[in-house]
């Protein structure tokens, strides 16, 4: 299903986009299984219509929005972002959506709102991976409110000119391109504004390995592997060295969000 | 109990040898038909690692099996299985050295020292080398049966190290189903040995030298 959007040249990286086939068959989406091919194999059972997102917590206008009203909330833009997985591989994806800030402004956070929490669908009947003890379901992620308000943070409804395929987090997800991929929650059913830092699924599962911030950072290694380099899927062959990972995945404009913070401590 | 004659044994050995090459053949076939997925290097690393563990289990299964099944001739397959364990370990290590570090030994060494799961796997691999080198009949004679056997008991250390390597690799994903399965298999295989030793039930003398 096509999803018309206008390319926003301000947010287009010059790297070669990853092949659609790679981007849709090599996924981490544990709700469908832990193997990279599981989401494309079993994602078909996800029912994306009707779909609603409940917006609640520290907001003046809590509401439940359906996917159509989300699509119409702001003009859809195509943006080409780098995606860096915490596992040491990367892709380049043409996403479709708009800055999450548009939605945030509409629901008017109260003065108490300091964080935003994303809660993904966890329905055993549609998602065969739910029930496996790998994570505490539902999958939850979160951002500081200023991170969520940054224009790069994309409320995402499509990719490659189409609505999101199920395995990529249909029908609505976020994409936070300067953080490791797992921070970009998929198949979101609830967005909650909070005073306190929300608990996130991966941080609960392995706090030493996955911090709340999880900014792409070549200088802070994962305890089990180096983050200094990465393999670009579909492009880096057997005979090329892995490429150097860039600070904030190359999105240096977000650096000011972290002024004065020790990014080794707040990894 | 089944006891193959020398022609039959030869046929069995050839069949096992060819079967043991199938995982490699599959990788090559997948490579040429573009079926290694979006991240071929990861696929190869995983696959060769898995097969190292499978052959490790098979090798360790020989002693209990020949006793439980009353088929002492199975010992004649053990050397080959052990060498295939080493063979897939070499491929696994080579993938790491080549595709992960591009033969940058200094960088690889830093990786080994810094990351326990790699250090453990690397140690297990290093310990396998003397076992592979002393696998020939000539080496058994040269060492003498007793010291050969003592040396080859290193496998009782290598096996848990291999499991630990796999365990830690999966730990970040909280996905312990496979490491637990392998761990249980290895624990049973090693536990049987301990049990028999403890029961002093060694009525059946086990020939240790491969032939």
Question: Overview of this structure, please?
Answer:
The complex is a heterodimer of chains A (267) and B (211). With 267 residues, chain A is α+β, with helices and mostly antiparallel strands. Chain A has one domain: Oxidoreductase, molybdopterin-binding domain (Sulfite Oxidase, Chain A, domain 2, Alpha-Beta Complex), CATH 3.90.420. Chain A has six helices and 13 strands. In chain A, the strands form two sheets. In chain A, strands 1, 4, 5, 8, 9, 10, 12 and 13 form an eight-stranded mixed sheet that branches. Chain A has a five-stranded mixed sheet with strand order 3-2-11-6-7. The radius of gyration of chain A is 17 Å and the shape is globular. The termini of chain A are far apart. Chain B has one domain (6-199). Helix content of chain B is 78%, strand content 0%. In chain B, α2 packs antiparallel against α3 and α4 crosses α5 (116-133). Chain B is globular and about 50 Å long. The chains are: A alpha+beta (267), B mainly alpha (211). At the A-B interface, α1 of A face α2, α3, α5 and α8 of B.
Which key terms come to mind for this protein?
heterodimer; A: 267 residues; alpha+beta; Sulfite Oxidase, Chain A, domain 2; eight-stranded mixed β-sheet; five-stranded mixed β-sheet; 6 helices; 27% strand; B: 211 residues; mainly alpha; 9 helices; 78% helix; heme (chain B); FMN (chain B); electron transfer activity (chain B)
Q: Which percent bin holds the helix content of chain B? A: over 70%
User: How many helices of chain B in DSSP terms?
Assistant: 9
Write down the oligomeric state.
heterodimer
Q: Strand content of the residues of chain B, in percent?
A: under 5%
Per DSSP E runs of 2 or more residues, the count of β-strands of chain A stands at: 13
Please give the CATH class of chain A: Alpha Beta
Number of helices of chain A: 6
Domain Ferric oxidoreductase (chain B): 49-162
Organism (chain B): Paucimonas lemoignei (Pseudomonas lemoignei)
Subcellular location (chain B): Cell membrane; Membrane
Cofactor (chain B): heme b; FMN
């Amino acid at each position: 299903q096509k999803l018309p959007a206008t390319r926003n040249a301000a947010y287009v990286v010059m790297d070669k986009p990853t092949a659609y086939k790679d981007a849709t068959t090599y996924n981490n989406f544990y709700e469908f299984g832990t193997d990279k091919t599981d989401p494309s194999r079993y994602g078909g059972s996800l029912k994306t219509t009707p779909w609603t997102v409940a917006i609640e917590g520290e907001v003046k206008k809590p509401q439940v929005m359906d996917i159509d009203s989300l699509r119409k909330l702001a003009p859809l833009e195509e943006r080409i972002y780098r995606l860096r997985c915490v596992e040491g591989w990367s892709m380049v994806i043409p996403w479709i959506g708009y800055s999450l800030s548009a939605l945030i402004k509409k629901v008017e956070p109260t003065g108490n709102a300091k964080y935003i929490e994303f809660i993904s669908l966890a329905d055993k009947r549609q998602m065969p991976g739910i029930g496996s003890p790998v994570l505490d379901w539902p999958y939850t992620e979160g951002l500081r409110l200023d991170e969520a308000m940054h224009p790069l943070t994309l409320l995402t409804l499509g990719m490659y000119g189409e609505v999101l395929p199920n395995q990529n987090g249909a029908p609505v997800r976020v994409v936070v391109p300067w953080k490791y991929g797992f921070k970009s929650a998929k198949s979101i059913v609830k967005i909650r504004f909070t005073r306190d830092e929300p608990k996130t699924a991966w941080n609960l599962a392995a706090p030493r390995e996955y911090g709340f911030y999880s900014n792409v950072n070549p200088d802070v290694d994962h305890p089990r592997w180096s983050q200094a380099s990465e393999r670009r899927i579909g492009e880096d062959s057997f005979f090329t060295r892995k490429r150097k990972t860039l600070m904030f995945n190359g999105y240096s404009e977000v650096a000011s969000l972290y002024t004065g913070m020790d990014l080794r401590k707040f990894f | 109990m089944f006891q193959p004659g020398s022609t039959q044994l030869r046929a069995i050995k050839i069949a096992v040898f060819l079967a043991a090459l199938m995982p490699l053949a599959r990788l090559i076939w997948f490579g040429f038909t573009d079926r290694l997925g979006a991240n071929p290097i990861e696929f190869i690393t995983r696959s060769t690692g898995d097969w190292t563990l499978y052959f490790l289990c098979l090798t360790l299964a020989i002693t209990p099996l020949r006793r439980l099944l009353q088929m002492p001739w199975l010992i004649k397959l053990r050397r080959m299985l052990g060498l295939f364990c080493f063979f897939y370990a070499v491929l696994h290590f080579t993938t790491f050295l080549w595709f992960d570090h591009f033969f940058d030994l200094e960088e690889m060494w830093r990786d080994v020292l810094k990351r326990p799961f790699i250090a453990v796997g690397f140690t297990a691999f290093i310990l396998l080398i003397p076992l592979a080198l002393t696998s020939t009949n000539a080496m058994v004679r040269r060492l003498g049966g007793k010291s050969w056997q003592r040396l080859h008991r290193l496998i009782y250390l290598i096996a848990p190290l291999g499991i630990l390597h796999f365990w830690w690799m999966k730990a970040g994903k909280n996905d312990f189903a496979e490491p637990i399965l392998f761990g249980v298999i290895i624990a049973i295989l090693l536990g049987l040995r301990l049990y028999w030793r403890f029961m002093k039930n060694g009525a059946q003398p086990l020939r240790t030298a491969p032939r």
